Amino acid sequence: MRFESKVVFITGGTKGLGKAMAQAFLAEGASVAVNSRSKEAVDRFAEEFKGQQVLAFDTDIADHAAMEAMASKVYETLGKVDILINNAGIVNPLVPSEKIKKDEFDKVIDVNLKGTFYATQAFGKRMVQQGSGRIVSIASQVALFGEKGFLPYAIAKSGLMMMTRQLAFEWSRHGVTLCAVAPGFIKGGMNEGLIRKEVFVNYLSGRTPMGRMGTVEELVSTILFLASDDARYINGETIVMDGGMTGYTPEGLLDFMSRGKQ
Ligand SMILES: NC(=O)c1ccc[n+]([C@@H]2O[C@H](COP(=O)([O-])OP(=O)(O)OC[C@H]3O[C@@H](n4cnc5c(N)ncnc54)[C@H](OP(=O)(O)O)[C@@H]3O)[C@@H](O)[C@H]2O)c1
């Protein structure tokens, strides 16, 4: 039981990847608290895990005052938070950048970048005070290269990677360390709609050197590793887990030369 007596807070833990992480942390002995915007989703989560060490809040991470109040309540109830998983996130409608609507751009930045910082600040300052803590943020592989359609999402996620570096510098001396994960396309969570169509699964698999999308289990085990003591010296860093997609040139010079027999 790697997380016996640990308290873990997972933003956006009511469904998708966050819920799978919550289950895995519970199975490894942790107490788990989550939040999301929907009261219905929060109630459903609390009901599903009734009898286990769980707390659930209907709080929007983009609401600074509400996040502060929620962090205070969590500390009142559980006494500490050892691990914060910055998981909550949304994706913008995929359109070329010149057509992005202001509201859609603002919403993604408000939630994914500003909201994740609000969560980090609310729990991080308490971790600094307690002299220990681990913060793992979910970035994205699309923050590492240009991918048409994803501009606000990519900007926000690359901001989280810089936040991770900067806060590791500021907070490590107080016992609080941070890292991030940049996953490729995972077969679950916000991709549920997409993966129902084989054509998209085949397309994304074809772009990946390993020839397939990542699984929820693979993502969860990476998160648990990074949150665990085994990863204690990984600090300020973003770990890419994308089956090799980021390092892949669809057609390299040698392929081009061979194809054209130049
Ligand atoms: N799935 C992938 O392939 C993939 C790849 C790379 C990175 N990621 C990242 O992984 C994280 C989890 O994604 P997912 O695929 O599990 O998505 P998901 O199934 O849509 O789940 C997102 C969770 O975040 C919550 N949430 C959204 N906005 C929120 C807000 N403002 N305040 C509080 N909670 C909020 C949602 O609940 P409510 O709607 O009730 O608020 C939900 O519980 C995201 O940060 C995403 O960008 C996913």
Describe the structure.
The protein has helices at residues 16-27, 39-48, 64-78, 102-130, 151-171, 192-195, 198-206, 216-227, 253-260, and strands at 7-11, 31-36, 54-58, 83-86, 133-138, 176-183, 237-241. The mean pLDDT is 96. It has a single domain, classed as NAD(P)-binding Rossmann-like Domain (Rossmann fold, 3-Layer(aba) Sandwich). The chain has a 7-stranded parallel sheet, sandwiched between helices. The protein has 9 helices and 7 strands; from the N terminus they run E-H-E-H-E-H-E-H-E-H-E-H-H-H-E-H. 46% of the residues lie in helices and 15% in strands. It is an alpha/beta fold and 262 residues long. Helix 1 crosses helix 8, helix 3 (64-78) runs parallel beside helix 4 (102-130) and helix 4 (102-130) runs parallel beside helix 5. The protein is globular. Strand 1 (7-11), helix 1 (16-27) and strand 2 (31-36) form a beta-alpha-beta unit. NADP nicotinamide-adenine-dinucleotide phosphate (NAP) binds next to helix 1, strand 2 and helix 4.
